[in-house]
Amino acid sequence: MTEVAIVGVGCVGFRQITPELSYKELMYEAAVKAYEDAGGINPRKDVDVFVTCAEDYLEGFSIFDEFVPDQLGAALRHLFTVSGDGMLGLATAYMLIKTGQFDTVVVEAHSKASDILTYMDIVAFGLDPIFNRPLGGHPYYVAGMEMNRYMHDTCTTMEQCASVVVKNKKNAILNPYAAYGAGVTIDQVLCSETCFYPLKKLEISNPADGCVVMVLASENVAEKLTDKPVWVKGVGWCTETPSLETMDWTKAVYTRLAAEMAYKTAKISNPLKEIDFAEIHDLFAYKELQHMEALKLCDYGEAGKLTEQGLTALDGEFPVNPSGGLLGMGYGLEASGMQKLLEVVLQLRGEAGKRQIQDAEVGLAHTWRGIPTTTGVVAVLSNKK
Amino acid sequence: MRYYQSEAVETKDIKEGKIPTEKFRPKAKFAWSAGIAISRFLEELKNGKIIATTCSKCGRIMVPPRIYCEKCFKPADGWKYVKDTGVINTFSVSFLAADASRLKEPIVVAIINLDGASEGMGIVHRIEEYGDWREVKIGMKVKAVWKPPEERTGAITDIAYFKPIRE
How many domains is chain B partitioned into structurally? Predict the structure, then answer.
């Protein structure tokens, strides 16, 4: 069975607002960059399948799928949409190529968050209409509840959660694709407004606009297109119960099971030793810690302490979110998985500029579909076949 | 639990609240950035003109305008005005309103291939001043009827409608 590689990436953004461009123009720009990066392929004939990832309600269109082919070079070609995070698109592309029927697959995901005037109402629309929605309030109270229970069970401290913000925003200063880089201190984080007790304002990622397009290819095609293929060694995904009443509130079980699936394919038995760095979904600061534990990068309840000690800093033993994470790059909605993949690809190619991790060979990308979901996707990538 | 036993449900049962439902009206508001191509198109409508973009590779004159040619997958490289006259490609006569109630006067909606644009490109608009709707034909020549300049807002409705050109 063929190996699968990422052979081209293109990114526009991420920025707070992009009023000068329509979502179609944003996608076109990212697509042009990705095709050029993949050895200058012509999407009109060199791509077998296009996979776009979008949620109608975030776009404000019904059946958004129909609005995407032209700007990707996919008009009258073979295209479909996955209603979910861009990394579910990666999983789909991986499977398509593994069948041996398709050699080149393009994956696209974007965020035009600044076009959504009532973003939080859209998020609230994801809550159960009978049991939860009638209670009102801002839907991020769900994150407050999870953070509270997570800290209670693990003895993770407020300072430890805040240290994630300090690290990620600092890394983002070095990333030209990041919208929210800043030098902040633990005190500044802790003194920011309490929004959803115990969650502080600076611990919440702000939305950003952007688009990421990637070209994936089978072994034979990949080696012709690029001398820097990034191999997809394993992918896994999982969804827990949608019910707030019965879900697990401390362990991000969906991420644990997705990771186990990816590690099995990638033959990883000791993630911390066999992987060099990770891009982890950090929509809220505590989520990076909780997800680190679910990804088996450390023991349950240890992530806060290790972060405080500098393990996950850019110059630490195991950098986490060298890109600046979503706290630093901005939250790209369904493109957040693609933001993670983008950084892993750049690092593994040695193209991460001032935030380059020396001798990085294996990287992990992880995403989560945000409040109020329990869906996670994990991918292990390497620059060695 | 009698309603779960396949009994006939009548309208009055629903009105009397015997069938449990939960109502919710989402607050979903969006403001789509028009972008480079469509912003210019809308501005030109305000001036009483219809503008296209052009592709130097395939030679097409594209309306509505876009910044890329989807056939060649290359950037569009020019602007060009097209005429506000054209030919009906296809049309339908809608006798129902959006809520499915019967309209007193039907609405004629047409795909209009604009003169000066490449084949099969143009605008979707309403046709009025046609007399009897049975007179509207595929291939019929039509012309835009513009709103007065002071009423134009930079929207597709700056053209009030298209009317047949009678020769």
Answer: 1
